[in-house]
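Hey team,

Sharing the NAD(P)-binding protein run so nobody has to redo it. Sequence (422 residues) first:
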Amino acid sequence: MTSSKPTAIIFGGVNTFSRALAQFLIPLDGEPLVSHLRIVDKYSVAPATCYLGAEFPKVLEKPEVEYRQANLTVPSIVEGCFNPLEGQEPFSYVFDLTGEARNDRPEEVQIANTFNIARHIGLEAAKRNIKAYVRIHIPCYNTAEKGGQTEKDDIKPIAPGGIWWHETLRALASIPDLNLVILRVGYVYGPYIDYGLFTAAICVAACYGYTKQPMKSMHSPGKHAFNTAHIDDVVGAAWGCAEWMSKLGRQEADTVAGEPLLFHNDKSKIKALEGACAPDAKPVAPVFNLVDDSNHTFMSWLGVPTSLFGTTIEHFDLFTRAMAKINMDELAEDINEDHVGTWTEMITTSKPPVPNTPLSPYIHPQVVGLFEKQSIGLDNSKIKKTVGYTLKRPTYGIDELKEVIEKWKAEQNWPILDESTE
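Structure output:
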């Protein structure tokens, strides 16, 4: 019996956004959007080898959901992941959330875990005539400080990870007949999101609120853009893009929303790399920015958690900032030591204690955005106009942050202290 609903595969992202996407497609309460969902990633979910949140394990119990732990660096394994179960229809949609999420990993790791994996999946998706292939692209680039960058603007990826995330887009765009849509997101936040700078910044702000000290920032009070996106909109927009592409096909979608993806790599590094685009090639694919309407700057973004926790922001003096440029690692480790010590006190004196929380205020020295100046300023009008997507969470503020923390408290991963320090 043929279902009127599509079938879908989510590749990767269990440590980032796939859990929320799965729950959007197969909600705990309500009508599923797909008739069958397969999730494939390297992580084990039983027992869990990464943070899953309180609700995702319940999604995995749904009869429509299938989870596969797999090594996606092997092309034959990727091929097998596209085979439907007996009696089920071929898969309709692919949501590609693969890729090395840490920017500081060596280039060979970036190539293996980002470029090669996505290319294997893209080639197989094209061979299987997948109706829509949505690639979610994390904020690993640097826009103009004023923000407002459209999809037509040539924004620069940050080395090394961002270089290979961008090279991956070029490789995917060059695959004939791949119904590719690129969803370029801002800094993602929301319930159960423990990935990225956002979560660490919340924990850091909580530490300063607890010690009743001002939060220190490496930046001077600048106005460079720092756009956010709620996870509800990331997954909602991914679905909207899949539906949009399935009705058009790649050729028409390129005509309507295609943008050239220009070269931003070292020519010598791709010379012998199988599947890489020639430096002078300008592959075209539909690209959509997905950020909310908050139009935050770095300082206004940081001001939300500091306001919630009753503290303020101060800036390191010129001497400290100058010394940081000389020895960033040493300064960052000193700062992290203070944060981690405070956080340890908070989680052990919590009622009840929460010593096994996955949350941490530790920020790697090479994480861009806090110790280095990065702008993420994107114009979101194209996805609204072309796809017809309406933001579910148009602003990021204190109420949205409270919701995130309450979810963590409910699963006993956030310290519960007295009224003035929670």
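The longest helix spans residues 328-349.

Ping me if you want the raw files.
A.
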